[in-house]
Amino acid sequence: ATGSTANPGPASDCAVPLASAVPGASHLTHMPSHTWNEIGRWNDGVRANLQAWHSDLKASIGEGFAIYPDHNLHMLLFAASTHRQAAIAVQAGKDYAKSTGDTMYHVLTLLRFGRFDEILEVTKRPEREVNAGFWDFAQGYAKLRAGELDFARLYLSRVKQTETTSKQSFRGHPAKTLLGVASGILEGEILRTIGDKKGALAAFERAVKADDEIEYDEPEPLNFDARHWLGAMQLDAGMAAEAEATYRTELKEHAHNGWSLLGLQQALKAQGKPTTEVDGQLEKAWARSDTWIRASRF
After folding, report:
1. Lower CB count within 10 Å: N or C terminus of the chain?
2. How far apart (Å, rounded) are the C-alpha atoms in residues 39 and 17?
3. Does this model's pTM top 0.85?
4. Phi, psi of 76 (to 5 degrees)
5. Distance CA 106, CA 102 (A)
6. pLDDT at 23
7. How far apart are the first and last CA of the chain?
8. Is residue 122 a contact partner of residue 85, using CB atoms and an 8 Å limit?
9. How far is CA 98 from CA 65, 93, 105, 220, in A?
10. Which of 184, 185, 177, 244 is nearest to 212 (CA)?
11. Could you tell me the pLDDT band of residue 24, with boundaries at 50, 70 and 90?
12. Are residues 130 and 166 in contact, defined by beta-carbon separation less than 8 angstroms?
């Protein structure tokens, strides 16, 4: 009962046995991951939802019960993205697209892990406006990383158009809020690319403001946090103290999150501060990682 409260930790004592109580019941197997995500046990969240998804697949041959398979995949890609397990996250995004016909999470998992050439190969644009806006965001980001600035700007204009005009929502979250995160990140990266550090910082701060306006949800609608872009930009701009504060704030939202722990480690080093407090946490956070990163965003 404490899993979704301000103090979710006590729920872990019940979550451990629940995960294996009825292996063929996917939703029961999945449920502990809500607690794992809240307290930062990301690999446990990955394992719980892998087991749940496998139960969903077994249901097709009468060996399990499929309950909310798309939700299980969403939880899986969220936990794997946070735990830097790219192979699992991207596969979950692909499976989500196959199950729903919606490529949004396919491209967002690819973006999280810097697989930009693969984003450009995902040509099916979602039908719903908010989801299509995220496809435009990912395509624009990939075009930017491919050196095609004009195309990146074109996609940014499409994201902003949907952000300001769409009356639709995604799982109850309005387009203005969700796509405000996306447009802020893409605009910030465009400005960073052309050397406008001040403008980039302002754009990333706008993205963070929109991110903070997203209402509580499990899992969260986005498998990344805008502060990963703001903190990286602050480091690039020589604002290490500000970056430290950004990453510490993000870690309050996603405990033991290696993307932010890396940024925090970099911010402390830039200030000549000891990193002992984060070195061990970072090593543990990346224990099952399959992707090498140099910053808190690609």
Report:
1. N
2. 17
3. yes
4. -65, -50
5. 8
6. 62
7. 37
8. no
9. 19, 9, 11, 21
10. 177
11. low
12. yes
Mean pLDDT for 55-76 is 91
pLDDT of 86-120, one tens digit each? 999 999 999 999 999 999 999 999 999 999 999 99
What number is the average pLDDT over the span 195-200?
98
Tell me which residue has tokens 């990383």.
145
Q: pLDDT tier at 291 (50, 70, 90 boundaries)? A: very high
- Specify the pLDDT at position 21: 47
Closest CA to 137 of 150, 119, 121: 119
Q: Average pLDDT of the chain?
A: 93
Per-residue DSSP letters for the chain?
A: --TTSS--GGGHHHHHHHTTTSTTBHHHHHTHHHHHHHHT-HHHHHHHHHHHHHHHHHGGGTSSB--SHHHHHHHHHHHHHHTT-HHHHHHHHHHHHHHHS--HHHHHHHHHTT-HHHHTT-----SSHHHHHHHHHHHHHHHHHTT-HHHHHHHHHHHHHHHHH---EETTEEHHHHHHHHHHHHHHHHHHHTT-HHHHHHHHHHHHHHHHTSPP-SS-S-SS-THHHHHHHHHHTT-HHHHHHHHHHHHHHSTT-HHHHHHHHHHHHHTT---HHHHHHHHHHTTT-----SSS--
Six-digit token string for 174 = 């309005």
